[in-house]
Amino acid sequence: MKSFISEDFLLSTEPARRLYHEYAENMPIFDYHCHLNPREIYENPKFQNIGEAWLAGDHYKWRVMRWNAVPEAYITGTADYHAKFHAFAKIMPKLIGNPIYHWSHLELKRYFQIDELLDADTAESIWQTANAVLQGEKGDVRTLIKQSNVKGLCTTDDPADDLRYHQLLAQQQGFKVEVLPTFRPEKALDIANPDFPGYIHRLGITLGKTLRTVADIQQALYDRIVFFKENGCCLSDHSFGAPDFTIWDEKAAGDAVQKALSGQQPTPYEVGAYQSLLMDGLGEQYAKNGFAMQLHFGAQRNLSTRIYQNIGADAGGDAIGDSLSAASLAALLDRLSKRGCLPRTILYTLNAADNDKFAAVAGSFQDESIAGKIQFGSAWWFNDHLDGMESQLRSFANIGVLSRFVGMLTDSRSFLSYPRHEYFRRILCRLIGSQVNEGLAPVDYPLLGGMIQDICFHNICRFLSKTGQPGKGI
What is the SS3 assignment for 139? Predict the structure, then answer.
């Protein structure tokens, strides 16, 4: 049966259709937050088959397969990719209503020109057609990226990383897509994790030092910020559950480090003190070095002990966590703002109950340095669907200034995920088009189209540049 991905998919009004096709459709992509592997981009392999391309590391797909009682052997286990692909295809008709149903059919159409529904009956023909593309001249990693009209992307990198593959990519002349690192000190902030001492040892080895105190850890991270900056980095990233940044206790932060490095468990108060102290110092360094700061809140990770022990992290055992208090978020931003060292910041929440709250907090810390300095980031992870995107866009529009939004990102490990930008753009045009249709926005296509093009591409380029001006930096 022919796919439902028509030219006007999701575009339910004439203004939406015109805004998308005339303004959004052909805009380039700057994917400022993803989990692609820079080594794979450098080495430029071809996927052997669509099973590998789709299922090798996609915990979104793994979760829905488990929802449908697919044996783990066909998800992350020992079955070959042909069998895994057929297992996924068999459950596809059960996924109507889940964004994976939309994403997967968009990917089939955009990368493989396949315009039919994926199910048990079509699986083998789709397998053959997609594999022929992947094994042909258009099937390598870089071609897939360029085919998606990507102009730049930011990977997610640990402070202890040597950034070797970013350096090698920067030296190559043939690949015109800018591949930049992102400074993500996740493991240095996760002091309650039993693996924390081992990570701090590794970070010390990178710098040729022994890290014994909170001051040692801070200085090590500051030194790595400079190294990352030298290698093109302009962005940091952090992920938390619901931290308490209202705690300010330098002694407790120091005690947390001493306990953690000796194998003891810091108290929740000491963890809060440590994270507050580190984020305060990091924020100041980001401002000093021209980095933007991403803050992801609301994730509850590794809920399933069985999945974590058998497969590991990022395997589909995570969930939406508790709401973050406005006082906690404001405490971090206010400490930095009072000293004049609040960096450009993007706030994300996994708990959609916080949408209006985050948009309102962001509005409290704007200043004249750049329009939209504090951003309410795109719908993330479990909110990365039609309702979630519309909800985030409505909160941004109602409480902030939507025209200043820095737009969509993939947050993905898959080289076939770029149609998610198309998905977002269609939803954006659907929302603005409905306002035109209802008389809530002017019938001024150049005005609205310019706004949409800014959200699709121009705003993030300005945001990540040092000056905040078009054509500078990125």
Answer: coil
pLDDT score of 86 more than 70? yes
Question: pLDDT of 61-84, one tens digit each?
Answer: 999 999 999 999 999 999 999 999
Q: Residue 367 burial by CB count (10 A; 0-12/13-18/19+): exposed, middle or buried?
A: exposed
41 touches 145 (CB < 8 A): yes
Comparing 13-27, 68-82, 249-263, 457-471, which segment has the lowest mean pLDDT? 457-471
14, 93, 175, 223, 360 from 35: Cα distances, Å: 36, 28, 19, 23, 29
468 pLDDT tier (thresholds 50, 70, 90):
very low
Which string of b and e fits 307-335 if b means at least 16 CB within 10 Å? bbeebeeebbbbebbebbbeebbbbbbbb
The average pLDDT across 19-46 equals: 97
CA atoms within 13 A of residue 141's CA, in its CB half-sphere: 18
CA distances from 433 to 12, 352, 421, 450, 455 (A): 8, 24, 18, 14, 15
* DSSP single-letter state for residue 441: S
Q: Which two tokens stand for residue 352?
A: 């959609």
Phi, psi torsion values for 88, nearest 5 degrees: -70, -45
Q: What is the dihedral of CA 283, 271, 247, 323, to 10 degrees?
A: 80
Report in angstroms the alpha-carbon separations of 66 from 69, 70, 87, 438. 5, 5, 11, 42
Which residue do the tokens 């000190």 mark? 185
Helix (H) or strand (E) holding 252, with range, is helix 250-261
Given a cut of 60, is residue 472 above it in pLDDT? no
- Give me the helix-helix angle, 419-437 and 445-453, nearest 10°: 150
